[in-house]
Design brief:
The chain has 169 residues and is α+β, with helices and mostly antiparallel strands. The protein contains six helices and nine strands, in the order ββαβααβαβαββββα. Thiol-specific peroxidase that catalyzes the reduction of hydrogen peroxide and organic hydroperoxides to water and alcohols, respectively. Plays a role in cell protection against oxidative stress by detoxifying peroxides.
């Protein structure tokens, strides 16, 4: 499993863009994780699935609520990762009204989850291989803090916890 001090894996995620700009076309665009994280401080959080109850009711709203404070604490971007396709992540971004505050990144084939060792096997529940619920503060592509949830829990990966870690670092 990835740990504090490790570099983010060399994988490509996808992001659905509804407007053209910054070199991105409308529709799914590739996001090279290492290039996108270089030289930035990023609040990353991952969820088992878009539109799922805890993820939609608590996890994403908590990061939206703490967006301005995270920025004030030196966070350049906030990334939400899920093992979903970019179209689902785009629809979830609209539903959650992330309005460019969060980058809703699709890990469609679970490459990031597998590379970090943060997978969650939900095959018996009809959901397949997913990402564990966690958060991490990343500085220049390296993990500065890591908060991995126990199965079925939502106690340490919330926006307030990562904000406190960003403020104390």
């Amino acid at each position: 499993m990835i740990k504090v001090g490790d570099s983010l894996p060399a994988v490509t995620l996808s992001e659905y863009s509804e407007v053209e700009g910054s070199g991105c076309s409308i529709g799914p665009n590739p996001v090279d994780v290492q290039k996108a994280a270089a030289g930035k401080t990023i609040a990353v959080f991952a969820v088992p699935g878009a539109f799922t109850p805890t993820c939609s009711a608590k996890h994403v709203p908590g990061y939206l609520q703490n967006h301005d404070a995270l920025k004030a604490a030196g966070v350049d971007e906030i990334w939400c990762l899920s093992v979903n396709d970019p179209f689902v992540m785009g629809a979830w971004a609209r539903d959650q009204k992330t309005g460019g505050k969060l980058r809703m990144l699709a890990d469609g084939d679970a490459a990031f989850a597998k590379a970090t060792g943060l997978t969650l096997d939900l095959n018996g529940k009809g959901l397949g291989l997913r990402s564990n619920r966690y958060s991490m503060l990343v500085r220049d592509g390296k993990v500065a803090t890591l908060n991995v949830e126990a199965p079925g829990k939502f106690e340490v990966s919330d926006g307030a916890t990562l904000l406190a870690q960003a403020q104390s670092a």
